[in-house]
Amino acid sequence: MNTRHTLRTHCARHLDTMRAEGRYRDFARLEKIADRFPLYRWHQPGGAPREITVWSANDYLGMGCHPAVRQAAAAAIAAYGAGAGGTRNISGTSPEHAGLEAELAAWHGKPAALLFGSGYVANQASLLALLSALPGMIVFSDAMNHASMIDGMRRSPAQRRIWRHNDLAHLEELLRAAGPAAPKVIALESVYSMEGDVAPLHAVCDLAERYDAITYLDEVHAVGLYGVTGAGIAERDGAASRIDIIQGTLAKGVGVVGGYIAGEAELVDYVRSTAGGLIFTTSMPPATAAAARASIRHIQQDTALRDRLAERAAALKAALDRAGLPRLPSESHIVPVPVPGAEACRRVARQLLERHGLYITPINYPTVPRGTERLRLCATPFHTDAMIGCLTAALRDVLPLAEAA
Ligand code: PMP
Predict the structure, then answer these.
(1) What pTM was estimated for this model as a whole?
(2) Domain contains 343
(3) In the record, which residues are listed under signal peptide (predicted)?
(4) Does residue 21 contact residue 265 with C-beta atoms inside 8 Å?
């Protein structure tokens, strides 16, 4: 046995299978044009850069391009340098980190908050730490929960019970069956990233109270976008005080990068003191924290962007419906258009880019189950009526290619 040869052969075969199934991921090189978001330059292989419209950006409000955020980042780099230079424990906690944590806690109406390098790590590290805290824990996980939550749950010693997506009767059945003795955690998202639908938070909290479970809510696709001050769906629905841990990202609505949790002081401090994903890694650059703070300040004070986002999402859905195009019944700014079959979905996305200058990511297994592949459209406040018109015309042009396949 020659380990290097065997491993290389295995990797090459696996990649060939992914290519054959249309699941091999090519990363298109996209250059964001900060003053003209959602326009980007596509650096196509062997060709001149071409201006295109992006419909799959998670910078949902364009805050990553906002002048106040860019200025805050540039000023902070000038003042503090580019990197944090240490873990949180080893010289990597600046006033920007501490200030941002205090502001995140206040935003979500919680006593404490804790920053991580990304939303992925926030979920993975926090769930792993909390679910390892007590013996015999059971975690009740919505079937559509993100890979980062699944990763944290799987690594923990807790038993995992999966409830059918947004199905309260199934959740209750599983909670009841677990019996009263086991410590229980219910883990869910508010806006589901691949469906665009929204969890019934109060009803889940009612069950949590009835069966003595704590609640862990991923608000990654809602932070900045929903609620009076933009804190998310829990704020919008008046449910924040009923959620034990709210997890969020600074990478989507806030437009920068980083993740966090907010909740009870003891729980947050326990994660801070025990989670490997926090302890053993360099903290985010202070300039990143400064940019996120500027972004959040703007989001809290100015409702115009999220009002415009809601209006644009409605306009996008109405235009798709008028054009007779298929879409999943989303309740949010995320609008999935089903194109079953990984190869068909990939080909349609390619044609949209090459023929029409529209970038829309094809979503396939393992992100969604096989056979439910889709194009994931994200409206932003900056997608105009003309852009929506181009999109519907382009989809009508290329979707028959999928059916013909
Ligand atoms: N949770 C959900 C529901 C997500 O969709 C994602 C990423 N798309 C994350 C967590 C991870 O967030 P981040 O990109 O900040 O790592």
Answers:
(1) 0.96
(2) no
(3) none
(4) no
